[in-house]
């Protein structure tokens, strides 16, 4: 009887293994049939072993999944605890000078917090401000992000060293006028002028490079909150530069570490934030002013020297440009390096992931975490329309599923128990 059980368990194990192999083959075959020559997929197990691959070396448009590489390079060059700063100086003519260094999360609440602290300093020293002078020289002034247009869409917002609210303003119509759609953000004159030129009853407007528009918007925001907290200001808002004779009165360090910024960047897939990091790492590595070209050189240097990625096309850091090209194989290397930071990504169930979408393009990269360091990776780059990411992800999850055969596993345990 004991020999019979041993023979039966061996035969059952062999049939179970063959059945498992066939099902995995069928899943892979189904996935392969969903893909075309304009798509690429790589699936890697917890040890990095590739268990499915198609067109893995073909360079394709990554769309917003490129933000994972930008985030990883920013952590490398700046450090996960890096905090953006903004400096405030007074000159001999009682002008308040504000110098920005690219903080991507200089939002209304932060401007008010800074203004309150500045006012306490000014009141203590009985200082009356003449002009507010804005210094945005840490970035090149006319930065044009490849892939963007001069639209009023938030994803086309320009980048700069001194910006507030992502260079956008959210409004809505109320009765016969307009109001801010966000309670914390005042409706300023520069915003109202732009709103009146639109035909919309609600939405976002974007402040452009034109005539220092976005920098002056930052100045108006500081002017509003400084006056709200009691500062006396007699002059105007101007642009200029800090010089050695100016007295530093306050340095604001962001409330948000780089890790927190990246978490928000990946959650909302914010193009403005991604390129603020992209330009900042270039300025950090090669010196100011920050430019797209310096950011590109920094990112390519990191990809080459640290990740061993040689053949990649990068023109900006958010993924909005179709000129960005990367292979699934190289994206898998990026995911391997990003693994310790995967929890900064969006989550659903046991997945950490980042998606990307352009017209006719859908991409998704991420991890499936089965616990106990059982973390697998996938890269999906679809560069032709007409396919469902949902159908492909279902097959990917099926391939990863560790619990396909619970009844058989339980039965084998019983057999082993009888054998013992």
Biggest pleated sheet: 6 strands, antiparallel
CATH topology (level 3) name of the largest domain = Beta-lactamase
* SSE pattern: HEEEHEEHEEEHEHEEHHHEHEEEEHH
Instruction: Find the structural class using helix and strand composition.
Output: alpha+beta
DSSP, total strands: 16
Architecture per CATH nomenclature, i.e. the level-2 architecture of the largest domain: 3-Layer(aba) Sandwich
Count of separate DSSP helical elements = 11
In whole angstroms, the N-to-C terminal distance is: 13 Å
The percent of residues in helical segments reads 25-40%
* Rg, nearest Å: 27 Å
Trace the largest sheet across and list its strands. 2-1-16-15-14-13
| CATH class descriptor of the largest domain | Alpha Beta
Number of domains: 2
The CATH homologous superfamily of the largest domain is named: DD-peptidase/beta-lactamase superfamily
What shape does the CA trace take?
elongated
What's the average pLDDT? 88
Low-confidence stretches: 14-27, 403-420
What proportion of the residues form beta strands (DSSP E)? 15-25%
List keywords for this structure.
elongated; 2 domains; Beta-lactamase; single chain; D-tyrosyl-trna(Tyr) Deacylase, Chain: A; six-stranded antiparallel β-sheet; disordered C terminus; alpha+beta
How would you explain this protein's 3D organization?
By secondary structure, the protein is α+β, with helices and mostly antiparallel strands. It has two domains: 192 residues, DD-peptidase/beta-lactamase superfamily (Beta-lactamase), CATH 3.40.710.10; 172 residues, D-Ala-D-Ala carboxypeptidase C, peptidase S13 (D-tyrosyl-trna(Tyr) Deacylase, Chain: A, 3-Layer(bba) Sandwich). The chain is 39% helix and 20% strand. The strands form four sheets. Strands 2-1-16-15-14-13 form a six-stranded antiparallel sheet, with helices on both faces. Strands 10-6-5-4-11 form a five-stranded mixed sheet, with helices on one face. Strands 8-7-9 form a three-stranded antiparallel sheet, with helices on one face. Helix 1 runs antiparallel to helix 11 and helix 2 packs across helix 8. 40% of the residues are buried.
């Amino acid at each position: 009887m004991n020999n019979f059980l041993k023979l039966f368990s061996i035969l059952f194990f062999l049939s179970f293994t063959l059945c498992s192999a066939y099902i995995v083959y069928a899943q892979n075959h189904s996935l392969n049939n969903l893909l075309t020559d304009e798509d690429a997929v790589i699936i890697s197990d917890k040890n990095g072993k590739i268990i499915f691959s198609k067109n893995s070396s073909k360079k394709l448009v990554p769309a917003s999944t490129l933000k994972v590489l930008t985030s990883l390079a920013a952590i490398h060059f700046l450090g996960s605890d890096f905090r953006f700063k903004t400096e405030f100086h007074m000159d001999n003519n009682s002008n308040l000078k504000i110098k920005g260094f690219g903080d991507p999360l200089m939002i209304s609440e932060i401007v008010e917090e800074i203004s309150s602290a500045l006012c306490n300093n000014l009141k203590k020293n009985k200082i009356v401000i003449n002009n507010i002078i804005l210094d945005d020289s840490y970035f090149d002034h006319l930065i044009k992000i490849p892939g963007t247009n001069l639209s009023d869409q938030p994803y086309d917002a320009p980048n700069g060293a001194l910006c507030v609210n992502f260079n956008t303003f959210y409004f809505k119509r109320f009765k016969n006028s307009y109001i801010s759609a966000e309670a914390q953000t005042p409706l300023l004159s520069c915003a109202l002028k732009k709103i009146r030129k639109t035909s919309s009853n609600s939405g976002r407007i974007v402040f452009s490079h034109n005539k220092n528009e976005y920098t002056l918007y930052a100045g108006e925001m500081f002017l509003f909150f400084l006056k709200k907290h009691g500062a006396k200001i007699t002059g105007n808002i101007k642009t200029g530069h800090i010089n050695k004779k100016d007295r530093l009165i306050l340095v604001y360090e962001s409330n948000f570490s780089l890790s927190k910024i990246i978490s928000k960047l990946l959650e909302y897939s914010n193009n403005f934030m991604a390129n603020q990091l992209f330009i900042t790492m270039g300025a950090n590595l090669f010196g100011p002013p920050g430019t797209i070209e310096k950011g590109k050189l920094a990112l390519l240097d990191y990809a080459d020297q640290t990740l061993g990625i040689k053949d990649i096309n990068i023109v900006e850091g958010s993924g909005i440009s179709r000129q960005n090209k990367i292979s699934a194989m190289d994206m898998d290397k990026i995911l391997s390096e990003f693994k310790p930071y995967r929890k900064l990504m969006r989550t659903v169930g046991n997945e950490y992931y980042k998606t990307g979408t352009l017209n006719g393009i859908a991409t998704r990269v991420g991890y499936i975490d089965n616990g106990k360091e059982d973390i697998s990776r996938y890269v999906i780059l679809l560069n032709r329309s007409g396919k469902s990411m949902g159908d492909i992800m279902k097959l990917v999850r099926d391939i990863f599923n560790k619990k396909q055969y619970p009844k058989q596993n339980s039965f084998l345990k019983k057999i082993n128990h009888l054998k013992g």
